[in-house]
Amino acid sequence: MKKTDKISYRQKSPKELQKDLFDLKKNLVESKAKLATGNLTDTSVFTKIKRQIALVLTLLSQNKDEK
Q1: Residue 42, phi-psi category: left (phi > 0), alpha (psi -120 to 50), beta (remainder)
Q2: Contact present, 56 and 20 (Cβ < 8 Å)
Q3: What are phi and psi of 21, to 5 degrees?
Q4: Ordered domains of the chain (ranges, CATH)
Q5: Which residues are within 8 A (CB) of 43 and not within 5 positions of it... i.e. 6 or more apart?
Q6: pLDDT tens digit string along 6-61?
Q7: Residue 49 and residue 51: Cα distance in Å, rounded?
């Protein structure tokens, strides 16, 4: 993940982060389905998506602690 991606996540509101989290989890499930059907050859997407999910969850917990 690029540094600019991390910065853009930090500038989002908690509501936007929740939406992004939902989209990332949906994308992860879709990628797993593609892998199971044989349509996915690049398995590095799993690690990338999981790291983005972890970043969003971290930012949400930090926002929660601040309030």
Answers
A1: beta
A2: yes
A3: -60, -45
A4: 13-66 (1.10.287)
A5: 35
A6: 899 999 999 999 999 999 999 999 999 999 999 999 999 999 999 999 999 999 99
A7: 5
